[in-house]
Design a protein that fits this description.
Shape: globular
Bound molecules: protoporphyrin IX containing FE
Number of helices: 7
Distance between the termini: 23 Å
CATH topology: Globin-like
Number of strands: 0
Structural class: mainly alpha
Helix content: 55-70%
CATH architecture: Orthogonal Bundle
CATH superfamily: Globins
Length: 149
């Protein structure tokens, strides 16, 4: 086997990549109002009956921090940052068919809608335009997850 085949390929960001700094700022506002990630998981787990059993053995203390970093990383990736290609690939591998937490592509719609519903509650400066940009960026992210399932 060729050596290159053993190396995990980096995950190229979408191109062209808009600047999504406004989403990082919005996410910062969400996190300042405590309980954002907890509320997101509450909404996500209620969004589809297939989801709660997937988290049956999850230690949510560690998981909250992982997701907080994961969302920030996802925004950077959608903005074209090559620095997060490897950690993004790792996150995607965890959710692939062969990964530790496989996620059927059809469930990603629930993820995006749950995230938007949580942002609605937590970002007091949210506008319809900013909300549409969140949807656009996170759809690119979950499309990449789904493609690598
Ligand atoms: C419906 C969609 C999703 C479901 C049901 C789901 C479910 C899970 C589950 C069950 C775990 C393992 C928790 C454990 O270790 O016990 C996990 C880990 C994780 N998920 Fe998701 N996930 C989804 C989408 C996403 C998306 C879109 C992202 C990123 C933007 C993400 C980021 C992460 C991260 C960072 C971890 C921790 C990985 C690690 O431990 O290395 N997840 N997820």
């Amino acid at each position: 086997m060729f050596k290159s085949a053993l190396r995990a390929p980096a995950l190229r960001p979408p191109s062209p990549a808009p600047n999504y700094d406004d989403l990082q700022v919005s996410f910062g506002r969400c996190l300042r109002n405590h309980g954002f990630i907890e509320r997101f998981y509450e909404i996500l787990l209620a969004s589809h009956p297939a989801i709660p059993p997937m988290f049956a053995r999850t230690d949510f203390r560690g998981q909250r921090l992982a997701l907080r970093r994961g969302i920030s990383m996802a925004i950077a990736w959608a903005s074209g940052s090559s620095m997060v290609e490897r950690p993004m690939k790792h996150m995607i591998d965890v959710h692939s068919r062969a990964g530790r937490a496989p996620v059927e592509p059809a469930l990603y719609r629930c993820w995006v809608e749950s995230l938007l519903a949580t942002i609605d509650e937590f970002d007091t400066d949210l506008t319809p335009a900013l909300r549409a940009r969140w949807r656009e960026a996170m759809t690119k992210v979950v499309d990449a997850f789904a493609q690598h399932y």
